[in-house]
Design goal:
Order of helices and strands: EEHHEHEHHEHEEEHEHHHHHHHH
Distance between the termini: 58 Å
CATH class of the domain at 24-223: Alpha Beta
CATH architecture of the domain at 24-223: 3-Layer(aba) Sandwich
Largest sheet: 5 strands, parallel
CATH topology of the domain at 24-223: Rossmann fold
Number of strands: 9
Strand order of the largest sheet: 4-5-8-3-9
Structural class: alpha/beta
Length: 391
């Protein structure tokens, strides 16, 4: 019997199933695919992967024009779900998020409800820009959707399939009435503009990548698989890190860091998700790394990050992944090769070719001498390149 996220006691397996490991690897492959379109957004993608595994919400802070909407849209497209995306203002009406009134039902039966098809209550991934700009009727409904995963539609209480809601804002709200709502975002990350030192890289990326709307349409991992992985977190073995986690929270509270009871309890889900992402049942101190981003007040972020760094042995950012095996590289190359066929848009073929070439370079670096593997990847590249010649 082991300690589970949320303080429950459960029996832990000795290893995740092959299906679970395969799903986790495809989720990470999605992150690497999306990363091809951006500069300096690896940490944001690491945290998005943790957020969807833990079924928690994430807040991106920073000025407009840093690619937050494009990042989330591309990532969500790989989850087999079109994200619900809205820019909120003081004048946004609830119907713009939750759906218009079902007029025929009201006229015929006198029943008041809204039509939620294609709206936030039907979404698995949502991105709301300027999240703190909307009025209290919207925020109060969002509280219930985010925390309880239900939507009160007239007299009915309907479950919502929401995996994660990503909010964006220039900064944290100053209005005390918004603090309870802001606390629902367990993960926070500041997304600055690309540093001047990477300007050339940014411009080179802009000239080589097609950054049209909609992102990559290939489904890397489906919603049902994510639901299963979310349930599997209850079986993560946290016994080795619970004492460290307790001391971390005690230290932060002692230094005046604001952490609600909700954040303290749900922080364990982030640790379990990090362990699952690392393909381990038994969590290790290094799996504390997402906690560097569960602060409430931005002024406390450096204190939290330093405390996590000392215990996790990291910089507070996503851990560097170990070199992947030849088998894993080949599996990803085969998946990429199946993404495009005769008739696929040239931009999609070009994107796959770039990712295949990156895999070939990684294969040569980490598995020098694996001649058969290199030949297979070269064959996949040749077949993909032929699609461009026929286009």
């Amino acid at each position: 019997m082991t300690s589970a996220p949320g303080g429950r006691t459960t029996s832990a397996p000795t290893a995740w199933s092959e299906a679970d490991i395969g799903a986790v690897r495809r989720l990470k492959a999605l992150g690497r695919s999306v990363e091809q379109h951006f500069v300096g957004r690896r940490l944001a993608l690491d945290l998005l992967e943790v957020a969807v595994l833990a079924h928690e919400h994430m807040l991106l802070l920073g000025p407009p024009g840093t690619g937050k909407t494009d990042l989330v849209t591309r990532f969500a497209a790989g989850l087999g779900s079109r994200p619900f995306v809205r820019l909120l203002t003081r004048f946004t009406e609830p119907a713009e998020l939750f759906g218009p009134v079902d007029v025929p039902a009201f006229q015929s039966d006198g029943v008041y409800r809204v039509r939620t098809e294609g709206m936030l209550p039907a979404a698995r991934v949502a991105f709301l820009d300027e999240i703190f700009q909307s009025g209290s009727p919207i925020l109060n409904t969002l509280l219930t959707v985010m925390n309880e995963r239900v939507f009160h539609n007239g007299h009915e209480v309907a479950p919502v399939p929401l995996i994660t809601l990503v909010g964006a804002a220039n900064g944290m709200p100053q209005d005390p009435s918004l603090l309870a709502f802001a606390d629902r975002f367990l993960l926070r990350l500041t997304v600055p503009p690309v540093a001047e030192g990477r300007l050339e890289e940014l411009l080179a990326k802009a000239t080589t990548l097609t950054r049209g709307p909609g992102g990559d349409q290939h489904e890397w991992i489906g919603p049902d698989e994510l639901d299963r992985l979310g349930r599997q977190l209850a079986h993560a073995d946290l016994t080795a890190v619970t004492p460290e986690y307790t001391e971390l929270v005690r230290e932060l509270l002692g230094q005046g860091v604001t952490l609600s009871d909700r954040r303290v309890i749900r922080g364990l889900r982030l640790v379990a998700a990090a362990a699952l992402r690392a393909e381990r049942v038994r969590a290790e101190p290094g799996d504390l790394w997402p906690l560097a981003h569960f602060w409430s007040d931005p002024a406390h972020a450096p204190v939290v990050q330093e405390a996590v760094r000392r215990r996790a042995g990291t910089t507070g950012e996503g851990p560097d992944e170990p070199a992947r095996s030849v088998h894993r590289l080949l599996v990803e190359a085969r998946l990429l090769g199946r993404q495009v066929t005769t008739g696929s848009p040239p931009a999609a073929v070009d994107r796959v070719l770039r990712q295949l070439n990156a895999l070939r370079r990684e294969l040569r670096t980490s598995a020098s001498g694996e001649r058969e593997a290199e030949q297979e990847v070269a064959s996949i590249i040749d077949s993909t390149l032929a699609l461009l010649e026929r286009a």
